[in-house]
Design a protein that fits this description.
single chain; alpha/beta
């Protein structure tokens, strides 16, 4: 992390877990465990659409931000089941995850739609958390850096230098999502550094130095401190551990180093 240049973000991705009625109890359990967190990091809870109102209510003015897990690339129209960026903003949602590997694998998300959704989010006040990462087969074939560079370039197509300052990138090796496996801190840091170099090539070093890059491959309360010690890892996109207030609090507090 380098808080002199960019913000640290610890974002919990609840995926399709928990219930709206349970959100208040989670907030009540978490907040006493992370006193003063706003001094060292931004904490975000990315909840299912149906839980966003209860999350906004539960976290209120505590400083914890609320995010969605997906957004439509369309502003409005006959798109049954979709949710627009404007609708999220009007619901007081502040962040949105775009291009998560599970969306890519199970729901046909492509690099093109990731770009379209990123541009749609940037037309509003939403802060996109744009996900990139390789599969195990791609990693074993030695194309990790090429693939992540391509995904990053496509995701940022049409994004201005000013808009870039609002974007967060999450490196999430697909082979580590929900498996309990994780890249070594050094390997994760190396890929995050490579992502920053790609952004530097597109926008210049000063702009790239201001982009927060998160690690999203099974970061948990056991490995968070070592991962966050890497200079180009600026936080985490946390899955399973974000559903447990005690474990999530350890990760938030590990960012205070």
């Amino acid at each position: 992390m380098n808080r002199d240049l960019r913000k640290t973000v610890i974002a919990g991705n609840w995926k399709m877990n928990s219930l709206p009625s349970e959100t208040g109890a989670f907030a009540d359990a978490l907040l006493p465990l992370i006193p003063g967190f706003e001094k060292w990091c931004e904490v975000v809870i990315c909840a299912p659409f149906v839980m966003l109102p209860s999350a906004v209510l539960a976290f209120g003015d505590t400083g914890v931000k609320v995010g969605a897990q997906n957004v439509s690339q369309h502003a409005q129209g006959a798109y049954t089941g979709e949710v627009s960026a404007a609708q999220l903003c009007d619901s007081h949602t502040q962040y949105v995850i775009i291009g998560h590997s599970e969306r890519r694998e199970y729901y046909g998300e492509t690099d093109k739609t990731v770009n379209e959704k990123t541009l749609a989010a940037l037309k509003t006040s939403l802060i996109p958390i744009v996900c990139v990462g390789e599969t195990l087969e791609q990693r074993e074939n030695g194309v990790t850096f090429d693939l992540v560079a391509m995904q990053t370039k496509i995701a940022l197509k049409g994004v201005s230098k000013e808009e870039l300052s609002r974007i967060v990138i999450a490196y999430e090796p697909v082979w580590a999502i929900g498996t309990g496996k994780t890249a070594t801190p050094e390997d994760a840091g190396e890929v995050c550094k490579a992502i920053r170099e790609v952004i530097s090539g597109l926008y210049g070093k000063a702009s790239a130095d201001g982009v927060s890059i998160l690690y999203g491959g099974s970061m948990n309360d056991k490995n968070a401190r070592d991962l966050l010690a890497q200079p180009d890892i600026d936080g985490g996109l946390i899955g399973g551990a974000s559903l447990k207030p005690e474990a999530f609090a350890v990760i938030v507090n590990a960012a205070n180093q």
